[in-house]
Amino acid sequence: MPIFEEKIPDKPIYYEVRQQARRFLSSSMKGNQIASLIVAVVVFAVMAYSFIISSKYIHVSVPVFFLPGLIGIILPGVVSGLISGEIQKRSMESLLATPLSTGQLVIAKALRAVLPVLATVAAILSLVLILLVGKLIYGDDSAGEFYSGWISIPAGIIISLVFAYAVTGICLAVSAVTRSTVASMVTSYGVMMLVYVIVPSIVAPIYVAIVGDGTGMEAYLAALHPYGMVALTAVEPLMDRANAGLVLILILIGLLIQGAIGFFGLAFAASRMEQLKRKGIEG
Amino acid sequence: MLEVTSLDKRYGQFQAVNDVSFTLEPGQIMGFIGSNGAGKTTTIKMLATLLEPTSGKATLNGRLLNSNDLLVRKEIGYMPDYFGLYEDIKVWEYLDMFASLYGVPGIDRPKVIDEVLELTDLGFKKNEFAHSLSRGMQQRLCLARCLVHNPTLLLLDEPASGLDPRARSELKDLIGELGRMGKIVIVSSHILPELADFSTVVGIIERGQMLAFGKVKDVVRSLTPAKKIQVRLLEKGAEASMWLHGKDHVSATEFVNPNEFRFDFTGTPEDQAALLKAMVDGGFPVVEFLDEEADLEDLFMKVTKGALN
């Protein structure tokens, strides 16, 4: 057996995702996991029922509007405890002592978000399918506010995936500086509230007061917010007042900003872990 | 071969580890002894590349132990003094995860896991959840985890803390076995008799300074130039003590009971034989004339006393 294999293992970063999937498929879940699965199924059934009976008046892209909100609620619960939890359980030291670099460790932790996000996207897509089935039964009368175009469904999903990346970055960054899972979760929700709710709700009225309402300029501001981006791809009046090409560029810039938030979050978490590794977890 | 050269660690004004140097050959088991806060854990963490030394260095087979070199960690098995297990992971999954983290190829992993489980006597718990194991078993699982990548250097920080006597004795056997497998093992503890049995080398650390290092017997000899001899007589204990008082190499007599006392003796074994002969010829009814081996406990108390005062 060679003493030093000059190759850093890259597969372990998928370990978490693989284990998660295996546990789910082999149905060796714990009580609370089964309970949350039942709750999710019930909520989904209620939503599906209300969608199918109102399908005549709702455009097929409407479920996509739930996606950023669902991701914003679900992801911090999954991701925010991943680093602080290891420190709290004191299992971090064993991990830091392995040949895995801190960057790989943070990416492995971030991959934990993949399955919940994919499950959420799948649920939303099946709601779209349910709406289509409803329209086959009850007919379609949903013209008006929304584009009849289908582009908003893939666009909304792509925007939501980038948003999920940003949320993962924020949560892991918070997780790397807090010392317990609960503190990390509360702080993650707080930071997200600040970035995505409080700051926009302060900036938007000021913007409207200065630039004025109904000028079409609000589209450009909306492009910076994940929900605004989704709205721009789907809502007719908002899009009509702006130059479509310019809005597309703005959405791309908005996506870059979200991507940057995610990247800096992960980089911050990695640098913080590097610090823990060099100075010791207690010190 | 592990070479540690004047390792230093300073936290602000506080000198946690001060100029620690030693060398260990493959197969040697070093008992690392020191009271709480003496610098054992800091030294071990520096060797595990989890803490950067302020100055000094350590090399393993010529390769520098440093936190920038991720691959050197494949040669180190580190067992922290306190560790957490994941809640929803089975014993074999836990080992599988660490084997993959240390780069053991997937095809070899099942065999490696079976081997380390057999070595640590945990084979029958393979499919149990890790957190459901008893404390002793968790300790053994952690040791198994340190062994999955077949490291050359094992750093065990207080592996026996919180174990019952039986688990402790099993752990001792296991560590002895690892030494025979040619690994360099460093075991720290503040419970001394626990290390005396299987350590080939002992290092005593106090206030960050290595006070003594070497083979157990050598350390004992170098630190206790005078050995204790215990004498038991049928009668005339007090007179025998008086008689001994003026003899060469003899000092500090202390009575255990009227006919039994010990004294410090600095002479050679020949002197010792001559002294016994003289005593018997002098008409003292000697029943016992024993060398008292200084044990690690005494030694530790003796060595650290100087530093603490």
Structure, described:
With 283 residues, chain A is mainly alpha-helical. The two termini of chain A are 37 Å apart. Chain A is built from 13 helices and no strands. Chain B has two domains: 2-222, P-loop containing nucleotide triphosphate hydrolases (Rossmann fold, 3-Layer(aba) Sandwich), CATH 3.40.50; 226-293, Alpha-Beta Plaits. In chain B, helix 2 packs across helix 3 (109-119). The mean pLDDT of chain B is 83. The A-B interface holds A 1, 3-9, 11-12, 15, 19, 23, 30, 86, 88-91, 93-101, 277-280, 283 and B 11, 45, 48-52, 61, 67, 70-76, 78, 80, 82-86, 88-89, 93, 97-98, 100-103, 106, 142, 145, 150, 152.
Based on CA atoms alone, the radius of gyration of chain B comes out at: 24 Å
**If you average the pLDDT of chain A, what whole number results?**
82
* CATH homology group of the largest domain in chain B: P-loop containing nucleotide triphosphate hydrolases
Please identify, by name, the CATH architecture of the largest domain in chain B: 3-Layer(aba) Sandwich
Helix-strand category of chain B: alpha/beta
* Number of alpha- plus pi-helical segments of chain A: 13
Strand order of the largest sheet of chain B: 6-7-8-3-9-10
- What is the terminal-to-terminal distance of chain A? 37 Å
Assign a percent range to the helix content of chain B. Answer: 25-40%
Number of domains of chain B: 2
DSSP strand count of chain A: 0
Give the topology string of chain B: H per helix, E per strand.
EEEHEEEHHHEHEHEEHEHEEHEH
Distance between the termini of chain B: 36 Å
Major beta sheet summary of chain A: none
Helix content of chain A: over 70%
The radius of gyration computed from the alpha-carbon positions of chain A, rounded to a whole number of angstroms, is: 22 Å
**The biggest beta sheet of chain B, please?**
6 strands, mixed
CATH topology of the largest domain in chain B: Rossmann fold
Instruction: Identify the most extensive interface between protein chains.
Output: A-B, 33 and 37 residues
> Would you count the extended β strands of chain B for me?
14
